[in-house]
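dumping this here before i forget
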Amino acid sequence: MEQEDFINRVEQAGGTVYLVGGWVRDHLRGVKPQDKDFVITGMEREAFVQLFPTASLIGHAFPVYLVEIDGIRSEVAFARREKKTGCGYHGFAVDFGAEVTIEEDLFRRDTRINSMAYRLPDMQLIDPYGGRDDIAHRLICATSHHFSEDPVRALRAARQAAELGFAIDDRTRELMADCAVELAEEPKDRIMHELSRALAAPQPSLFFEALARAELLRSVFPEIFALQGKTQPLEHHPEGDAFCHTMQIVDVVARKTPSLEARFAALAHDIGKGETSEAILPHHYGHERRGLDVLEAWNERMTLPKSWLLAARFVIKEHMRAPFLKKTGKIVDLLLAVEKSGLSFPEFLCIICADHGSLPPYLARGEELSRKLRQVHGSEAPLGLHGAAVGLWLRETRARLLGKLLSM
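structure:
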């Protein structure tokens, strides 16, 4: 069904169709919008079901349907009002009758840049709360005081800052801070969803910095909060403490690769520094070992994706030694281990280069060298060698080959 046909059928039944949310925001920003979300007013649910019998119901507390429009399964919701009745995102009473207006529906949304709509088919902008002005001023502002009634909106505002490069206004930051108590009780999968989207943003650091300014970082991501105030030797880290360094590295890596595994590994590479004793600062001896323990505790708290864990473990363990190896055998071990790390060579190298500023030749040529090392197989070992002896021969042979390759 084409969009025009969908709109006509709803209008003939007495309803009105609106485009809402991110599509409207991005269209006004001059950015190519992604998926379309529709809202209907002036129509009861029963009439909609009769009109579109093949629509799939996906909402539970309130009706949201999937309807194929222009060949894409799009979300179609009924305009609704919400009233806070309990804790968390389940603690709402919802009214979605035909009398609910688009202005009421937009009022319940999180930020003003997301509280706009286009009435269809004439594309008349409905902007009762000033979202267009916020876009012009590159601001993220809560639509109303109801913002803090769903605590995850605090994470969404921080994530929008990272995605759009917008600032968060002071009043919204205060409302974010009000979310602290309920946010601690939210399902961890909702927090993971926002973390994933924040890491996918052009500048992930803005997400964590916004949470820090709203005094939410300690309760939501204590592993990252602990890096604040952990000083580092100025000759190596003029950018500041371990938190500033981590934010710098994750942004550099984000500019180089879209890989969430690489971005998370960059975020986690120095988390052991948060556990450094004040007595030995600005040094962080042994932070790699501590970092692995912190990562495991983080995973126990909120179950991180396995691919993130694999990549982060490898980077935490290897990031300090990888650029400084001297013995060819150890270099061989490292190069061959990268392929089992969950990271590609370019992803691993962009983290190490961001952290250290440069790469030694064996890392700069790592992908090529690894490929040539793997061309030597244990099946080529001299007759009479068995078991561990074959492995020892293989490592020594590869080490000699590496030495020759690096001298070329």
